[in-house]
Design goal:
Layout: E1 4-13, E2 17-29, E3 36-46, E4 50-51, E5 54-55, E6 58-59, H1 61-74, E7 84-91, H2 101-112, E8 117-120, H3 123-141, E9 146-152, E10 157-163, E11 166-173, E12 180-182, E13 189-192, H4 194-203, H5 215-233, E14 248-250, E15 263-268, H6 269-279, H7 294-302, H8 310-313, H9 322-330, E16 332-335, E17 349-358, H10 364-375, E18 381-385, H11 392-408, E19 417-421, H12 426-433, E20 443-446, E21 454-459, E22 467-474
Parallel strand pairs: 1-7, 7-8, 9-15, 17-18, 18-19, 19-20
Antiparallel strand pairs: 1-2, 2-3, 2-4, 5-6, 9-10, 10-11, 11-14, 12-13, 16-22, 17-21, 21-22
């Protein structure tokens, strides 16, 4: 039988720029892991980077959606077409904090449906995706090496620490190029973000919109940014510390912060792209060509006393497209062919909270408490099941325990429950947990999944016997 084909769409709306990526993929079984997966065959469309359309301090929704519609048309996507199998849309950095950001998310969902996850203001997911879209291939080539990846954009620096292609921890700072906006080619300040206003006040800088920023004050701002980056990398950036001036959105957990001498540092984002271009010998750009601090931050990173040695030696893939590339390639999994799905009409299921994680031998009190929490979610919920081996006796015993609890709590017939498995026993567990259909509840069991630590899951419609499963809200 010919492999099923589908299309993946990645959309990224950042503080400074926005972009899109469309690719074709086939659904096939991985010969090494044995799991069903999406395998990219070719990119069909890659948009140029464009400035994110803004109108005063809001997103220009009409202009942004015109971009989306043009990108989809160029990628051969018809809104609502069933051929879109996964991917995602992200609002990142300061764009995610705009008061009308939810309107863009809703409009994207109207065009692309629940097969795609539109996620706003999710810094841990951004950090994970940037690592996957840029540093992960390099990390897998050096499996014993720890990599620290900094995705520095217009509004945020997303931090991810990983090894052998896997992310171990994430963090996020409000450090980026667009917190101070200049008239391009000058140091004349046009606008300041709320974070830069707090920083100016703390540093005693009196300049504001309409003023030229003195060189000495520029140096003090950059010194402060680089110091905060170093503290975050070392695990010393505490959000409760007033000296961080609310610039720490998610701290990198101290237990994961290794010795700097043992860790390779890589970059992506607009600032990262400038650093690597200069490291390859490109002529430095003129003063504030983009009307922000990007070139200044890049210069300071190029001369960083600890990290500068890494730029020519550890060049990651992805460049400025790291987040959207990671989103397109890694946000969507495929459930195995043995999924338990009583009725195709149960799907799609969008934005189900993942309320807990269960082991096959979990205490009955824990099992009952987890399922009771899932029952309280009005739109349905999901539960991770880890460590369940595809052995008949074990699956039967665990399924019987689930059935007993579900029967005892009179599970609502209109409330979906999704069990997410790593192993290939979804259909068997679903049959046992529903007592072979005697318990009439909307139970879906999706198996053969690489289960990340996430807060939400979306299951798309079944196609060719498999179901796309998208995770978002990744935890640090």
């Amino acid at each position: 039988m010919a492999a099923a084909t589908t299309k993946l769409v990645g959309l990224d709306f950042g503080t400074t720029t926005s972009s899109a990526l469309v690719a074709e993929a086939v659904v096939r079984r991985n010969a090494v892991t044995g799991r069903m997966e999406l395998s990219l065959t070719r990119e069909t469309f890659r948009s140029p980077l464009v400035f994110t359309p803004l109108e005063n301090d809001r997103l220009d929704l009409a202009a942004t959606l015109r971009l989306v519609d043009d990108w989809l048309a160029r990628g051969g996507i018809t809104p609502g077409h069933a051929d879109v199998g996964g991917g995602g849309a992200l609002l990142t950095g300061l764009t995610a904090r705009k008061e009308n950001a939810s309107g863009l998310v809703a409009s994207i969902r109207e065009r692309l449906g629940p097969a795609l996850v539109a996620t706003a203001d999710d810094p841990c997911l951004e950090s994970w995706l940037a690592f996957q879209g840029s540093c992960a291939p390099l990390s897998r080539r050096h499996p014993e090496q720890t990599f620290l990846h900094l995705d520095i954009g217009g509004g945020t620096t997303n931090i991810a620490l990983g090894r052998n292609g896997d992310v171990l921890a994430t963090g996020c700072l409000f450090v980026g190029a667009r917190h101070v906006r200049f008239t391009p080619g000058t140091r004349r300040i046009e606008s300041l973000s709320s974070h830069s206003k707090a920083l100016f006040a703390a540093l005693g800088i009196s300049s504001g919109p309409g003023d030229d920023l003195p060189p000495a004050d520029l140096t003090r701002i950059l010194d402060w940014y680089l110091d905060l980056l170093g503290r975050a990398v070392d695990g010393r950036a505490d959000p409760a510390d007033r000296s961080t001036l609310d610039h720490v959105q998610v701290p990198l957990p101290p237990p994961f912060c290794g010795e700097a001498s043992e860790t390779k540092v890589t970059l992506s984002g607009g600032v990262g792209e400038l650093v690597y271009a200069a490291a390859r010998g490109a002529a430095p750009p003129a003063i504030t060509p983009y009307g922000d601090l990007g070139v200044d931050l890049a210069h300071r990173l190029l001369t960083h006393p600890t990290w500068a040695r890494h730029w020519p030696a550890s060049l990651p893939e992805g460049g400025g497209r790291a987040t959207v590339a990671g989103l397109l390639r890694h946000a969507t999994r495929i459930s195995g062919a043995s999924i338990h799905l009583p009725a195709p009409s149960l799907l799609p299921l969008t934005d189900l909270p993942i309320v807990g994680s269960l082991l096959p031998h979990a205490d009955q009190t824990v099992l009952r408490a987890t399922l009771e929490l899932a029952r309280r979610a009005p739109g349905g919920a999901a539960v991770h099941v880890r460590g369940l081996l595809p052995e008949a006796d074990g699956v039967r015993r665990f399924g019987a325990r689930i059935a007993s609890v579900l029967d005892g709590m009179a599970w609502p017939k209109d409330r979906p429950l999704v069990l997410l498995l790593e192993s290939n026993c979804g259909k068997a567990l679903g049959q046992c947990a529903s007592r072979w259909g005697q318990l009439t509840l909307p139970l879906v069991v999706a198996d053969e999944l690489d289960l990340p630590a996430a807060r939400w899951v979306t299951l798309g419609k079944e196609r060719d016997g498999v179901v796309p499963v998208s995770f978002h809200g990744l935890e640090g």
